[in-house]
Amino acid sequence: MRLLYLHADNFGYKTVKPALKNPPDPPGEASFGEALVVFATVEDGDGPGAVESAASDIALHSSRLKVGLVVIYPYAHLSSRLAKPRTAHRMLVELERALREKFSGEIHRAPFGWYKSFTISCKGHPLAELSRSFTETEPDEPWPAASDLTKGVSGEVLSRTGLSGGGSLSPASWSIDVHKHLAEEAMGPVENLGFGESLGEAYSACISSQTSIIVLGPKPPSMVFGPIETDPREAVSRILAIISPQLKEERPTLEEDPGGFVKALTQEGERLPIAVAREGRVCLGPTLSLFKLAVSLLVRRARDEGVTPYLNPSITPVQSAVIPVEPDNESYALKVARDLVALGLRVSLVKGGGLGRRVREAGRSWASLIVVTGRREEETGTVVVRRRWEPGKQEVLTLEEFLSEARELAVGGRGNLYHTTL
User: Residue limits of the Threonyl-tRNA synthetase editing domain (predicted)?
Assistant: First the structure.
């Protein structure tokens, strides 16, 4: 069942002539003020599961919009796989019945089996125009929760690679800007925004969208995005390469069921939902799962090859960590941090504890650039820079030189300054 939601200021229709030999509904006309108008196409194979899912989603969206009227409008132009007219009419009657059990407002179902003229004035907010698709096999699993991927990896390896510590492996704690930037890197500018109470609803909203869309769930910042016209394996490999250049050649093990739902198998044996693929279109996410998969693969490389893992500097949650050597140097460190924030970077100012401990904490935050400022740097207007992708190497730069380099990491997002005290 495919639905098109339009939040209308006003809507009206009038039957013109029969579209079937014996239309099951009588002719009629009606006009309304504010309403959620649901253009509905019943597809071959739709049954009670699709009806119940559709009714629940309509009720949820109506509540979100705070509308008191839903108009169900039969519309045979959202799919090429139409159910037979008798079945389609029965499903729409069942949809009306199911919706009355879930929605306390007024419901009007337009006549089925007639050519109709209609007029509509649609609102212009982000949720005013949404498309949905429901089948008998939609997954009802919830959005995955955040958890650190430390299973099977020794503390020694995690410590050596800078992956241990609070929050270091919890992509759910990363800002929504990071997740949104990943989506935009993969598919370009976002044209629409949706919401899915369950992962199945999010997949349906995304895969049926006619424009690029981000679908949020009840556990932000994780999101589903797409659709992209490609193969799911190619899409996932491309996403991994965006998350970290170290994963360009990775081809993770994927499982795709008959409904097009794709899961990835991690090194720890966890099956992560990461995509849905139908009719040559792919929607990716939840982004939390994609980040967890990437972290799992990076940890494996750290364990097997002894390399320091790193993320794409535009994706990493903390792009630069600024560390004053002594408390007397904190004012200069704060100036450097604020200059970076002004460029649009996510910056952590790390204070307290010993210098070595602060450097390790910066590594645990996945910081791409670690900046150390002491008395000498303050007097000479310089900084000591360590780049995560060049382990064991550091360089002294003037502040202007460093800011010029750091500017390349800014991708138009909001700058943020986080204070970390050990």
Answer: 1-133
